Amino acid sequence: MSFRAILATRSDDGAISASLQTLDDTALSDSGVTVAVDWSTLNYKDAVALAGPQIIQTFPLVPGIDFAGSVVSSDDARFSPGDNVVATGWGLSQTHHGGYAQRARVPGDWLVKLPTNINTRDAMAIGTAGFTAMLSVLALEHGGVSPNRGDILVTGASGGVGSIAITLLAELGYRVVASTGKPDEADYLRKLGASEILDRALLSAE
């Protein structure tokens, strides 16, 4: 079956470019779970991937470090056609075709079934940024950080990870101090739950 995908290629002189291409299933892995991709996200890492060879390790490759969609076919008994799933990381956009395509095929271990109350669009609205933010909050809690130990600083506050971290921490009862280089985003950050806004220049000043 043919499908559309953004394909990153590298020329003989090392220049990386990306274009919209028509591929077919032979471009995918020989085995695994085939997913009709509904949504992916645009992350900082995705932009870096097209700027140099540090991220993408094999060419040609479909970028996109995450995706959500529905299972089309599966050689893994844990997944059936129609299951809504999400994938993030696992070498997507590095050594394996990623989410910027209408179809993907990955090992079942890379997929997580979505609960029935979260659709594929909502899953990617949270995306890798939300996943990273939640892992960071869990790591803080595991390290013994709690709301009664004082303010907590979120840097890069207006970015994807930072903005979700503010919301999570505020909901958990932390007093959040948001550091940003975009002072015009102050009202937005307060709406997310930040109690105080700091210009990041203050943190980097000598």
Automatic annotation (TrEMBL):
<feature type="domain" description="Alcohol dehydrogenase-like N-terminal">
    <location>
        <begin position="31"/>
        <end position="115"/>
    </location>
</feature>
<dbReference type="InterPro" id="IPR011032">
    <property type="entry name" value="GroES-like_sf"/>
</dbReference>
<dbReference type="GO" id="GO:0043957">
    <property type="term" value="F:acryloyl-CoA reductase (NADPH) activity"/>
</dbReference>
<dbReference type="Pfam" id="PF08240">
    <property type="entry name" value="ADH_N"/>
</dbReference>
<dbReference type="InterPro" id="IPR051397">
    <property type="entry name" value="Zn-ADH-like_protein"/>
</dbReference>
<protein>
    <submittedName>
        <fullName>Oxidoreductase</fullName>
    </submittedName>
</protein>
<dbReference type="InterPro" id="IPR013154">
    <property type="entry name" value="ADH-like_N"/>
</dbReference>
<dbReference type="InterPro" id="IPR036291">
    <property type="entry name" value="NAD(P)-bd_dom_sf"/>
</dbReference>
